[in-house]
Amino acid sequence: MNILILVKLLVAHAVGNFFFQTDGICEGKKAKGSERMMYLGLHSLINAALAYILVADWVCWMIPVVIFISHFVIDLVKTSLDSEHVGIFIVDQLAHIAVLVGIWAWMTDTDVTLTVKWAVDYRVWLVVLCYLLALKPSSILLGLFISKWTPTKNEQNSLPSAGTWIGYLERILILTFILLGCMEGIGFLLAAKSIFRFGELTKPREVKITEYVMIGTFSSFAIAIILGAFALAVIQGKI
Questions:
Q1: I need a labelling partner for 217 at 20 to 30 A (CA). Which of 70, 107, 126, 134 fits?
Q2: What's the chain's Rg over C-alpha atoms?
């Protein structure tokens, strides 16, 4: 049950920080003055409320209070830096996770009793977390990682957000293939994507675009395989 608390806190963070944070909130957090503070407060409140609801320890007000204050301060510092560098993104997420781990350690040390217990094994929550991380969090990380290789002359011939959704689907499929033990499915997926995405990029003048697409594809596959291996180890009881 102790590890379940930590996993729930992480799931709440993933949902609140990536799925409930709309483009409007992201832009509002970069605004000036009171508008910025309002959006920072709204985003922090969402994360605090989600953690409080998922952990379901209604008498422990320290959970939403600590998460609200820490989230507000961490995001205030991040938005003040005004940078989209991948390193800042990673440090920001590590700071949030460190706070959650601290809350979990405090709760387990003081032996706080949950008033509402969910009859769900912690391994289920870890697998859910892996699927959540395979979506928007991975997409953001990949976007920051490959941004320096983005071709300067990029023709807008693709469908809106098509690349994002292709990435979502391929990582979900890879994660599922690993959990089901169908490793050959990953090979077929890579072959299929090679045919459709690389087939028209064989001309010498398209070398840069080809390399850019390959970097994105292999990075996406690597993230999905790592998440899948972790989820499989959790299911098998190795973690």
A1: 126
A2: 20
Task: Give the mean model confidence (pLDDT) for residues 100-114.
Answer: 72
Q: Are 164 and 146 in contact (CB under 8 A)?
A: no
Residue 47 C-alpha from the chain's centroid: 14
pLDDT one-digit tens code per residue, 221-233: 999 999 999 999 9
Model confidence pLDDT, tens digit, residues 141-171: 998 998 888 776 555 556 667 788 888 999 9
Q: Which amino acid is at 193?
A: K
Q: Is the dihedral of CA 30, 35, 40, 43 positive or negative?
A: negative
* Cα 197 from chain centroid (whole Å): 25
**Are residues 54 and 12 in contact, defined by beta-carbon separation less than 8 angstroms?**
yes
- Interior CA angle at 196 toward 192 and 178, to 5°? 30
Report the distance separating Cα 29 and Cα 44, nearest Å.
11
Q: Which amino acid is at 237?
A: G
